[in-house]
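Hi all, posting the design record for the shared folder.

TITLE: backbone redesign
STEP: 1 of 1
STRUCTURE INPUT:
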């Protein structure tokens, strides 16, 4: 893949991540506004999954650097966050 195409793909994935994140924020705010045990669980999950995503993204960066592919790290991290955000969006929409 050419560098220009890779950069375009990264930009597109980042934009999709931003839009999906807005949806997740709105869905979570609605759930938190209702209160109760489900809201408490969601708040706890929201915090704990951020720590896990951060640790996993750091591992992706280190692994890419150790393999001599540091230039691939940004796309890997955006991909990781994108998959997790889309999973949250699906989960929150079905409840």
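Okay, here is what came back for every position:
SEQUENCE:
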């Amino acid at each position: 893949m050419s560098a220009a195409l890779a950069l375009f793909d990264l930009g597109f994935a980042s934009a999709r991540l931003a839009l999906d994140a807005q949806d997740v924020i709105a869905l979570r705010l609605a759930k938190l506004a209702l209160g109760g045990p489900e809201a408490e669980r969601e708040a706890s999950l929201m915090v704990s999954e951020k720590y896990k995503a951060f640790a996993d993204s750091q591992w992706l960066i280190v692994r890419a650097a150790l393999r001599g592919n540091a230039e691939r790290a940004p796309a890997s991290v955006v991909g990781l966050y994108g998959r997790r955000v889309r999973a949250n969006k699906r989960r929150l929409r079905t409840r």
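COMMENT: Residues 10-94 form one domain.
Let me know if anyone wants the other runs.
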